[in-house]
Structures are given as structure tokens and as C-alpha cells.
């Protein structure tokens, strides 16, 4: 069995790499000369990294075949070398392309070495419970509990494929952050007079549809077609509508509006109320700051680079 001797956070420029990693994302890309290569996101318990599979001239016509054979979520032998590109260390694979003919047997590996989950799920669950308890209207509080309880994977799923909270437990963590930020914003604005019960319910349920967009596979989660074909907002609205009974119609409609409008100016539905704008700003703050923090996490003082998650330049003083 191939031993796990190298971890993502240990990769350094010029390092020879020959170790198992989880393949979380696989994309077929085109080179400038018209050829193909495979762009991978690989992971283990220490985090995520980039891997580019170039192959060799002997495999030039088989790149797409290798790409289609890759099973996302499974463990593969990554055999290549590490190189810094645009400020980030990534693995490049040439001869090692043959290792992608089949995944390694996941049952032979200790899951604790491969599952990237920086979230304390038990703590997040307790803090979500305390946040829900702040809702004073028993009908609205019951609505939130029923929707979450009726959503498989809510506490385990990631919040996104790449950009923010893209790890096990990320959806619950992002939900908690959004609720905490929204409540803080509402308390900061003078004479806001917001409906905090509706605000909390909307923030706690704004991304509930994302749980239906991911499926556990191997040591990771993979996005389902519904992620792009339907969208998490529509799926979340459908989940919310199943539990409308017993809630004041006007306040329920307001919660639904918050869910539908949480993408702000980028969504089909624009926020029309202070509560909806507050959840949008809180959602965006949680997502953007998580991405920025993760992009800058391993920078040394005086270093900068183009952030893979934010898509923006990041720097550490």
C-alpha cells in the first residue's frame, strides 16, 4: 500500500511528490498549442492544492480518456513534482499520468488522513441551536427547526464547490456566520427597527437548498447536476414552502423573499426590505472573508499572490 508521507500543506517548490491524495475536482483544460491537460484539485486533512496533469508525448492523444476515467472523491497516487506558479505551490504530473487509470482502494486508507474538515461540527451544531433559540416567535422558530431537520446533509455538506467554505461542514459554518453577522448589522444600524425573528430565519435558511446540491462520494463531496441546472435558491424555496403551514403568511412571505433575494444585485430577485439587504450583506461578508482568509493563510509577511478563491490579489503585511 502506498503510504501517506506527504501532505498538501507540506508541498514546497522543487519537491518530488509520490503520495496518495483525494481528487476533489477534475477539469479538462486546453493548452495554448491546442493540446489538452487536466486541472485537478487534490486534498487531504491539511487542505487543498492544485495539480496539473500534462502527461508525456506517448499519452498525448489519451488526455481526454484519462480525464473521463477519473472518479472524483476517490484517492489516487499523485506522482510528479511541486512547482510554484503565480505564488501558489502546485503539483505537475508528466510520467505519473498512468496512475490515473484507476483509483486506489479507499478502504485501505485511514479516513482521518484524507478528509479536509477544519470545522468543529459539534460546536457549530450547538451554536446553531443557540441562534435558533433567539427566535421569539414559536411558529417561526419551529419553521426553522423543521426545515433544517428535513434537510439531509445540512450539517455535513460544503457551502460551495470552490470559492468559500468548500469543505465538510462548510454549509453549517457559513450559515452560522451569516446569522451572526446579520444580527450584528441589525443591532448596529440606528433606528433600523428590523424584524429580527424574520431576519434570523432568513439568514439561517438562505442557503438550505445547497444541501441538496452535494452528495458524499469517497472521502469528499461532489456537486450534483441540480447545483447548476436548478440552483440552490430554487431548491431552498421548495424546501421552505413545504413547511409554510402554521406561520403568519406575511412573515413567511418575508422569509421566503429573503431566501430568494440573498444574492442581492446579482440575483433574479432583488432585495426589497432592510432585512433582505442585511442577509445579503452578511452572506457576502461571510463568503468573501472566508475566501480571503484562506487565500492568505499560508503567505509569509511581505508575500502576495492571486487568490485562487477570491480571484483577487491577496497580501500579508
From TrEMBL:
HD/PDEase domain ranges (all copies): 167-297
A Pfam family reported for this protein in Swiss-Prot or TrEMBL: HD
Organism: Methanoculleus caldifontis
UniProt name for this protein: HD domain-containing protein
Gene3D superfamilies according to UniProt: Hypothetical protein af1432 (1.10.3210.10), Nucleic acid-binding proteins (2.40.50.140)
Keywords for the protein's UniProt record, in alphabetical order: Hydrolase
Amino acid at each position: 500500500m502506498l503510504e501517506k508521507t506527504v501532505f498538501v500543506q507540506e508541498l514546497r517548490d522543487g519537491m518530488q511528490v509520490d503520495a496518495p491524495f483525494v481528487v476533489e475536482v477534475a477539469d479538462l483544460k486546453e493548452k495554448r498549442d491546442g493540446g489538452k491537460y487536466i486541472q485537478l484539485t487534490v486534498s487531504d486533512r491539511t487542505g487543498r492544492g492544485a495539480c496539473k496533469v500534462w502527461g508525456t508525448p506517448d499519452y498525448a492523444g489519451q488526455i481526454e480518456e484519462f480525464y473521463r476515467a477519473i472518479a472524483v472523491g476517490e484517492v489516487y497516487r499523485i506522482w510528479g513534482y511541486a512547482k510554484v506558479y503565480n505564488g501558489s505551490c502546485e503539483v505537475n504530473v508528466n510520467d505519473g499520468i498512468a496512475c490515473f487509470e484507476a483509483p486506489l482502494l479507499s478502504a485501505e486508507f485511514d479516513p482521518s488522513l484524507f478528509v479536509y474538515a477544519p470545522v468543529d461540527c459539534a460546536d457549530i451544531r450547538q451554536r446553531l441551536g443557540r441562534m435558533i433559540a433567539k427566535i421569539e416567535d414559536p411558529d417561526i422558530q419551529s419553521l426553522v427547526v423543521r426545515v433544517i431537520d428535513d434537510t439531509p446533509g445540512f450539517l455535513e455538506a460544503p457551502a460551495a464547490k470552490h470559492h468559500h467554505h468548500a469543505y465538510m461542514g462548510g454549509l453549517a459554518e457559513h450559515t452560522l456566520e451569516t446569522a451572526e453577522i446579520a444580527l450584528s448589522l441589525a443591532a448596529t444600524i440606528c433606528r433600523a427597527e428590523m424584524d429580527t425573528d424574520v431576519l434570523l430565519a432568513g439568514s439561517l435558511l438562505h442557503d438550505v437548498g445547497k444541501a441538496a446540491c452535494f452528495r458524499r462520494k469517497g472521502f469528499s463531496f461532489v456537486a450534483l447536476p441540480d447545483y447548476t441546472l436548478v440552483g440552490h435558491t430554487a431548491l431552498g424555496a421548495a424546501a421552505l414552502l413545504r413547511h409554510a403551514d402554521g406561520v403568519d403568511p406575511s412573515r413567511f412571505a418575508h422569509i421566503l423573499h429573503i431566501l430568494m433575494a440573498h444574492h442581492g444585485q446579482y440575483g433574479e430577485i432583488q432585495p426589497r426590505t432592510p432585512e433582505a439587504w442585511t442577509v445579503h450583506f452578511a452572506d457576502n461578508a461571510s463568503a468573501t472573508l472566508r475566501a480571503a482568509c484562506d487565500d492568505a493563510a499560508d503567505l509569509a509577511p511581505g508575500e502576495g499572490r492571486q487568490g485562487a478563491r477570491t480571484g483577487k490579489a491577496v497580501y500579508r503585511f
